[in-house]
UniProtKB/TrEMBL annotation:
Gene3D superfamilies: Amino acid/polyamine transporter I (1.20.1740.10). This is Amino acid permease. The keyword Membrane applies. The chain crosses the membrane at residues 46-67, 73-95, 116-140, 167-185, 197-219, 225-247, 268-293, 313-337, 366-385, 391-411, 423-443, 449-466. It is a multi-pass membrane protein. It comes from Curtobacterium citri. It is found in: Membrane. Keywords: Membrane, Transmembrane, Transmembrane helix. The keyword Secreted does not apply. Pfam families: AA_permease_2 (PF13520). InterPro entries: AA/rel_permease1.
Amino acid sequence: MTSAPTRPTSLRQQLARRKPIEQLQAEAARGVDGAPLRRSLGVWHLTMISVGATLGTGILVVLGTAVPLAGPAVWISFVLAGVAALLSALSYAEMAGAVPTSGSSYSYTYATMGEGIAWVCGWCLVLEYAVSVAAVAVGASEYVDETLRVFGLHLPTALAAPPGDGGVVNLPAAVLVLLATAVLLPGARESAWVNTLMVVVKIALLVFFVVVAFTAFRAQNFEPLAPMGAAGVTAAASRLFFSYIGFDAASTAGEEAKDPRRDLPRAIIGSIALITALYILVAIAAIGARAWTSFSSDEASLVRIVVDVTGQPWVALVFSVGAVVAIASVVLTVLYGQTRILLTMARDGLVPKLFGRVSHRTGTPVAGTLVVGVVVTVVAALVPLGELADATSIGTLVAFALVNVSVLVLRRSRPDLERSYRVPLFPVVPVLGTLCCVLLAVFLGAGTWIAFGVWMLVGAALYLAYGRRHSTLR
């Protein structure tokens, strides 16, 4: 008796196919070719990864572009962006405790909404992580230039800006990404300690700025509070949401955490609370010390304020060096997250296996890290900051919205699943988190939406050409 021929899976069926959570966890424990990631990170390391990937980005790099939109009310923009991020962070905390793998929101959507939505989310994460690394690295050149000015030197425009900003190549940005790539290669624990040291430096730097800026605080600088109206405040919040993307980097360490179910939710919620408080405090101090009309997107705003208040050139040196360290921490941790996302997608067959190969010696995806590092280096060297920041924001907002929806779906489909943390006020929090992400995305410019549409079309083509045929669930 002959068996009936197997019918090929239709595209619609494959896009809807979900990956069982138990299979995700088993594959994480087994690794690729018998080489799993090493579990070496505790709650302190995870919190520092989250803070390191976030703190400093919006204040040091994007503040100068947000103030002209919101005026003195830029601190309210930080509050709005922070609330939206916190709502999504609570959903991330629940999913990280229920599905502790390196795939972050990609794995969460694969388990709840199927391969098609998972690919969309994963492709958004590639945009979020890789492009944000490049965007933050681009901002480092401003602070490198400030450091050189103390010694009477100046970074040539040709080597300090990409072609779109009047230069030839952003050399500091490229060097920073290459150095971060080198730090990631030896192992997660080693790079985590380097990141922890840099996080301590950046927190001390921002506290120092607040203390100095408040000595020149003028309440008159907050009048009028919102010269561009509510639309300007919301538009600035959409741009500043880029500053909060780091907390989800902790969830990409799910397979390298010693106790992911317990430690990941703690790290995510704790870090987002700390980051939001510091952002608001620094924004208020900056506006209080300097009229909002003098902020510009083409200068290192905070170091200029510190120098103007103190009148001491050496302060510029200390602050600029500290700012470069702070930016380097963001580059390091977000680059780490990108390699772990691609590792999980490679394990599922949706991207080439190269990204999923883990070195038996270091316990890290060496080949994937090198490839990502080189590609991001090229982007950081050649693409302007403004375009990168907005593109990152829209990819982040889509991914965050999908995580909020994942919580709703998983509570319904797997109410018995072990969860080390549950979102409070369910389902209000994930619903509000989704709506906040959609609202902020709407206020991004038409050019950003067009670029996002092109990015998603490229992703769809790659899925049909490679991912559909190589998917392990097919």
